[in-house]
Amino acid sequence: MPKGLDVGTMNIVSAWEADGNTQFVKERNAFIELDYTEIADQVLSSSDLIYTRTDDKVRILGDEALNFANIFNTEVQRPMSQGVLASGATPSMPMLKTLIEHVVGDPTHPGETLYFTSPTNPIDSDIDTLYHRRAITSFLNDLGYDAQFVHEGMAAVYAALSDNEFTGLGISFGAGMTNVCLSYCAEPVVQFSIARGGDWIDTKAANATAMSKDRITAIKEDSLTLAREPEISGAEGAVAVYYDSLVEHLIEMIRTELDDEEITDTLDIPVVITGGTSSPDGIVDLFTDHLESADLGVSISDVRDVDDPLYTVAQGTLIAAHSDSHTSTVTPDSDDQQTEQATAADSAEWTFDF
What we know:
Radius of gyration: 20 Å
Low-confidence stretches: 325-354
Order of helices and strands: EEEEHEEHEEHEHEHEEEHHHEHEHH
Strand order of the largest sheet: 3-2-1-9-10
């Protein structure tokens, strides 16, 4: 039973087939750290909460971390930052591994195929994604899976452009990064990432309004609409300003990358927008408005969104797993292309201590 896994900075989502339907499991990619007490340990051990314990700390993970953060008036921490494993005093890898284990479960047989998402090195930042990708592969192989990675933009194409022979521009607006893939008949032609996403919007808007980042995130997820112009002095207005800036920057990066690859101008392709940061109403109109003043070098037939942007990328990884094409589902970015090609045969031999 092949599985798919979207390893996002904000959410982790798995997907698999059961009784002819696609099943999803989602958890917030977050945790809160509390002092350990015997009473707390007894309460947690008798609950369904996801948690880990050390000698003096208890860490509650997933969706419930937000509830505990509200109760204790603190902010959650995240195992990932800017699309990759976070660095810091608190070890991020064990937290991420625990969440992944909870979301994907055990394989039904040794070597079960699982495709997971990973960004490439962003073209507008010096963030390196190779260690992150290798670590996730090691997590999953240790669980007994045959783990392969697919770029988020390509996963969006798999999930949403089957009606166009998997040809078009897939864009996944994530929390840590925004990922783009131009695909022709299910083959990636251009794929890249930029180091701006939902977290970038939240940070900029929080700085502009002197509000907490978590509060801005809640407003963005619960009540924001880009279909109307909010008051510029309010939180929604600040978030809308940085959505506009993100889309403008993204389209300029798309134009630059397509121009560098000298893509033929005879293509007439759709654009699909997905990912959790694309959830607010009006994102398609915002993207379309910016397209009107941009010359991408290709003809855009239409811009479309999806019904469930939080789950679309996971659906795409499941489609990739079912296709089980271990050849060129992903084209590595130029910074680590030779390294990836040289070690493809023995990537499963990499081990990490958690």
